[in-house]
Write a structure and sequence with these properties.
The structure is a homodimer of 339-residue chains. The radius of gyration of chain A is 26 Å and the shape is elongated. With 339 residues, chain A is an alpha/beta fold. Chain A has three domains: 44 residues, 434 Repressor (Amino-terminal Domain), CATH 1.10.260.40; 129 residues, Response regulator (Rossmann fold, 3-Layer(aba) Sandwich), CATH 3.40.50.2300; 141 residues, Response regulator (Rossmann fold, 3-Layer(aba) Sandwich), CATH 3.40.50. In chain A, 51% of the residues are buried. In chain A, strand 1, helix 5 and strand 2 form a beta-alpha-beta unit. In chain A, the strands form two sheets. Chain A has a six-stranded parallel β-sheet with strand order 2-1-3-4-5-10, sandwiched between helices. A five-stranded mixed β-sheet of chain A has the order 6-7-8-9-11, sandwiched between helices. Chains A and B meet through helix 4, helix 5, strand 2 and helix 11 of A and helix 4, helix 5, strand 2 and helix 11 of B. Chain A binds a DNA duplex (16 and 16 nucleotides) through helix 2 and helix 4. Chains A, B: InterPro entries: HTH_LacI, LacI/GalR-like_sensor, Lambda_DNA-bd_dom_sf, Peripla_BP_I. Chains A, B: This is LacI family DNA-binding transcriptional regulator. Chains A, B: Pfam families: LacI (PF00356), Peripla_BP_3 (PF13377). Chains A, B: Keywords: DNA-binding, Transcription, Transcription regulation. Chains A, B: GO terms for molecular function: DNA binding.
Chain lengths: 339, 339
DNA sequence: CTGAAAGCGCTTACAG
DNA sequence: CTGAAAGCGCTTACAG
């Protein structure tokens, strides 16, 4: 076992309180005492016991980040930013991978590790508004993503309807007229898909383009393989699309691959745009036009909100904030090669 | 504040010990007592205080995973596996991103969060063998990667010399004769790069091929942008290579992109192989031939080792284990399209 | 089967 | 400036 404050105190011939003062950088300690203590600290290789400190202080300096999967590039990049932002405030981050599964998300909300984490950042996929509101654990929480709005907690997300609208408008502006959507889900599916579909439909309507049901068939997930399949289906239609708006970058990268496999040229035969701005899309062939959400801002705001709740502001009404995003024009819609 | 065991005991009219027994699923509690306690637990919405429990038990159920960066696909995929493997054993995982920077790695080794984590899995890049050996914190640790061998701790990695050899041999077997390497670093650089270079040189030697210094110029990092630049430099040589072994998949994906940008065909003009088997390479155009390390096995072994140390086996000599890997033939060396 | 009590290692009023 | 002591919430021998 390691040495405790008490061991150090005994060794240095002072009280535990004095050692604690030195360890915690308390100002008013005489140089003599301080150096005695420091010597003892070093000799015994003292390490504070954080569980004891946390118990006493009533907080841990740990926050949990619950997201569907760490190996999906968008979430990996977001996690990076969250961890960095947390670090700047002295927090460390525990990761929970939910796979977007209801039971796992419930588990997170029910409070795994009660009183061990000071706060929780959750990106839910399956769990609904009601359940979120009914949660009994009262660890401060920030919600990410599009499942729940005006919810029972602070919420940070981009305006997905607007983002999808801008992506679609970009295709319209290029002169494309048969614009498909990949990533549509059943009406009871993910909120993200619903909002992005909305933005797509709005943009078509604004442009005076008809909605062709053949061009908005439903898909299963947001992964590459589905993008491949979907684009192949679309391109084998009697009247194939000349552009496709993919609800995320993985689908779009799959679509690029699918088009290649059946010999369609991107963007000549079909222009492709995604959402997320994951790194892969900056190096794919062709490079991917996409909507880039400001992930660092999302991370920063999440931590700011969490911190304010942790610091006591628990009863303020939930905040609803939209993060910035912008269109990145690249080769998949005719933009030029990255420099 | 939440209710404590004491509050619950008072409410249920029993002792703290009895409540603790119920909470911890202790067998021998009379049904009457149990239900009284359970009612009180529910009424007060009791949550155990994990800091207190950890303090008392002397362990936390938390392990830390320290790696260079979470948004590099290989590490993201590895992190996913580690988190899953940890979960199966009841551990949760804290992430430290070191960026491969010496000071950050030192900080990790010095024991951030002493006695809060039961164990540490570290993938070092900068820190050397001596420092690792001289560490004073005695939290059980497992080393990943190629920086340190026969080290002061259990170590899990693939046989990089062999892996690089097989990748290179594959190119030789295709009939390529001018095989370049991308990812080479200065002699004092990363261990990974050194070992992969070794495997490459061994394979050339076995095949009776000469080593051409022009084909093994040094690069800076293991990221896509460097792959682009390197392949362009190589292809503008008076005698360009007909194949290139990249020390990781990001470099290889960059190389694919770079070849495309200057109009070289892959694999016709230049065959490309990487190491890591990140998901992008299964969907890139062309898809990427690579060496696939068994990440789940690496994660599983890491946890197994860590667990045995945590469980008390601290003085056993450090274990050195090699994880499996295999060659995945894909389009970038002429393999067929993914089904 | 259940209770009273000690103690994990720390921080923090309270004295002096 | 420093000490003695209480207490954070839990688990665990020790009794009975």
């Amino acid at each position: 076992m390691g040495a405790s404050l008490r061991d150090v105190a005994l060794r240095a011939g002072v009280s535990v309180k004095t050692v604690s003062n030195v360890v915690n950088g308390y100002e008013h300690v005489t140089p003599t005492t301080r150096s005695k203590v420091e010597a003892a600290l070093k000799e015994l290789n003292y390490r504070p016991n954080l569980s004891a400190r946390n118990l006493r202080r009533g907080k841990s300096g740990i926050i949990a980040l619950a997201l569907p999967e760490l190996d999906s590039p968008y979430f990996a990049e977001l996690a990076r930013s969250v961890i960095r932002a947390a670090e700047e405030r002295g927090y460390t981050v525990l990761i929970d991978q939910t796979d977007g599964r209801l039971e796992r998300e419930r588990h997170v909300l029910a409070g795994i590790r009660p009183q061990l984490v000071d706060g929780l950042i959750v990106s839910p996929l399956s769990v609904g508004r009601e359940e979120l509101a009914a949660r009994t654990d009262n660890t401060p929480m920030v919600l990410l993503g599009e499942t729940v709005f005006e919810g029972p907690a602070d919420h940070v997300a981009i305006d997905n309807v607007a983002a999808a609208g801008i992506a679609t408008e970009h295709l319209v502006a290029l002169g494309r007229r048969r614009i498909a959507a990949i990533g549509v889900q059943p009406p009871d599916g993910q909120g993200t898909a619903r909002l992005r579909l909305q933005g797509y439909l709005d943009a078509l309507s604004t442009a005076g383009l008809p909605v062709d049901e053949d061009l908005i068939q439903q898909g299963a997930t947001f992964h590459r393989a589905d993008g491949i399949q979907a684009v192949k289906d679309l391109l084998s239609l009697p009247e194939p699309p000349d552009a496709v708006f993919c609800f995320n970058d993985l689908l779009a990268l799959g679509a690029i691959r699918g088009a290649y496999e059946i010999g369609a040229r991107v963007p000549d035969d079909i222009a492709i745009v995604g959402i997320d701005d994951i790194e892969d899309g900056r190096f794919s062939t062709p490079t991917l036009t996409t909507i880039s959400p400001d992930k660092e801002q999302i991370a920063r705001l999440s931590l700011e909100f969490l911190q304010s709740r942790i610091d006591g502001d628990r009863d303020a009404p939930p905040r609803e904030v939209q993060a910035d995003f912008r269109l990145m024009e690249r080769e998949s819609t005719g933009g030029r090669t990255a420099e």
